[in-house]
């Protein structure tokens, strides 16, 4: 092999790497730009959202803070969606599904936003609550009622009650990592 052949094969190798990496980098850059997140992929670790989102499926988040795609005030609650004549659904039910960091758990949670509360709200038996989560609780028996601050009440689609009646605190805007917009089904 001559020096010229060696130079040609090195440049050919470099050109091949560039041709392979360019579309990958464009795809990753596009996802980061579209979602506003460096790591928009999350694997669902429990059955709390089944059958709408299965355990082990990967979901794609759109960041709620600092994103041009979604501003923090644009989360659609299940209660808001049910008020519409033709309610928009997200993963089989009304209301956005969010990925959030609960104060009292060791890992983030993917659950549906049921409704928004304001500080002082006695939210346990709201008229716009989902009948699926009807409970024998009263505001006096619920740890986070009345609401100690503004935030969201959440629940897994496969759970019998609201997260906030099961030991979790009301979710604040700053705890929300993103809104789930897409899922990659199990293969």
What is the name of the CATH superfamily?
Umud Fragment, subunit A
Can you count the helices? 2
- In percent terms, what proportion of residues is strand? 15-25%
- Spatial shape: elongated
The third-level CATH topology is Umud Fragment, subunit A
Query: What's the end-to-end separation, in Å?
Result: 47 Å
**Sheet of most strands:** 6 strands, antiparallel
- Portion of residues within helices: 10-25%
Unreliable spans: 66-70
Supply the CATH architecture. Ribbon
Q: Structural class of the helix and strand makeup?
A: alpha+beta
Tell me the strand order in the biggest sheet. Answer: 1-2-8-5-6-7
Give the tally of β-strands.
8
Q: For the record, what CATH class applies?
A: Mainly Beta
The radius of gyration over CA amounts to 22 Å
The topology string of helices and strands comes to: HEEHEEEEEE
Number of domains: 1
Mean pLDDT: 81
Provide structural commentary.
The protein has one domain: Umud Fragment, subunit A, CATH 2.10.109. Helices cover about 20% and strands about 20% of the residues. It has a 6-stranded antiparallel beta sheet with strand order 1-2-8-5-6-7. The radius of gyration is 22 Å and the shape is elongated. It starts with a helix and ends with a strand. About 5% of the residues have low confidence.
């Amino acid at each position: 092999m001559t020096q010229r052949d060696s130079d040609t094969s090195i440049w050919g190798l470099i050109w091949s790497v560039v041709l392979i990496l360019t579309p990958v980098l464009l795809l990753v850059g596009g996802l980061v730009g579209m979602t506003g997140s460096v790591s928009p992929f999350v694997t669902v670790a429990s059955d709390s959202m089944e059958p709408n989102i299965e355990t082990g499926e990967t979901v794609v988040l759109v960041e709620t803070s600092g994103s041009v795609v979604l501003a923090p005030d644009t989360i659609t609650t299940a209660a808001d969606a049910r008020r519409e004549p033709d309610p928009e659904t997200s993963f089989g039910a009304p209301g956005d599904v969010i990925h959030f960091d609960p104060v009292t758990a060791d890992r983030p949670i993917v659950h549906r936003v049921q409704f928004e509360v304001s500080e002082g709200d006695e939210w346990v038996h709201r008229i716009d609550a989902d009948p699926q989560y009807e409970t024998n609780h009263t505001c006096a028996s619920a740890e986070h009622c009345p609401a100690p601050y503004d935030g969201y009440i959440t629940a897994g689609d496969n759970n019998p009650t609201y997260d906030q009646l099961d030991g979790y605190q009301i979710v604040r805007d700053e705890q929300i990592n993103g809104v789930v917009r897409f899922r990659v089904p199990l293969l």
